[in-house]
Here is the input.
Amino acid sequence: MLDVTRLRVLVAVARHKSVTAAAEALHYAQPSVSHHLARLEAETGSRLVQRVGRGIRLTEAGRLLADRAEEILGRLDAAEEELAAHSGLRAGRVRLAAFPSALGTFVPAAAAAFDAEHPGVDLRFREAEPPEAIGLLRRGEVDVAVIFTHDDGPDVAGLRTEQLFEDETYLVAPEDWPGDRLADHRERRWIGGCERCRDELLRACAAEGFTPDIRFTTDDYVAAQQLVARNLGVTTLPALALTAHRNDRVRVVRLPGRVRRVLVAVAGAAPDPPATRALLERIRASSPRPPAAGPEPRATAGRARHP
Here is the structure.
C-alpha cells in the first residue's frame, strides 16, 4: 500500500519542479524529501525521478503517479473536511466553480441564499470555464461545478451531472444591419468568443453553408456587444450573457435550435455531504426555468468574460 505522506512529497516535487522547493513548501528538510522519494520508488518498484544537471524531473511513471496522487489527496482532504463537519469539530466548507455568465446571473443568488441559510459553512467559489472546472472537481479542489456543454462538450465521465436548463443562442448584430439568420451576414465581419464558443459558431455557420470571417476575438461579452454596437461585426451570445449585460444599441435575434446545456456536476457516489446537498438545492432553485431567461436589458459594469 502506498504511503500518503510520500504521495504528498511526490505531488509537491511535481508542482514545484525541484526537491529544494518541495521541501520548503512542505516544511521538510531536503534530505527528508529525498528519503521519501527513494522509499516511494522502492514501494512502487518504479523509477519515479531522474537527475538532470543539478535538478531532477519526473519520469513518465512519476508523472502518472503524481497525477493520480493529486486526485487521491484531494479526495482525502475533502473527506477530512466532511468528517470534521459531521463530528462538529468545525462547520465545514463547500467550494463551487462556475463559468463567467453563470457567475453574472443566477449563481450569486444561489450563493447568497445558501450563505443566509448556513452562515457557519465556509462557502467559496471561483470562476472557471468547463474544462478547468471539471479538472478541479476531479482533483477534489471544488465540490460542485456549474458547467455548460454543446454537442461535443467536455468529458464528464465518472462525474454525476444534472441538467439545469437549456441556454438559447442569439444572433447579435448592429441595429441597422438587416438579417435574422447567420447566413444573412456571411459577407460581414464576425466576432468570436472563447475557444468552445468559436467552435460552436463555426459549426452553426457551416450548417448554413459558409465560414465566418472572424476578425476579432474576445471572451468578454460586454466587449463583444460594444464591438457590435460600433458596427465592427456580428456575433452570437447565449441568453445568460445577454441577461447579465445587454447593450441597448444592438439587435438580438433568437437562433432556433441553437442551445447549450447548463449542468451542475459533482464527483463521487451519492449521497452528497450535507453542505454540498444544500448548495445543490439552492442552485436548482435559483436557475432560470426553461426557456432560459431572455435577453432583457440589464445594466452592468466592468469586465464580463464570454459565456
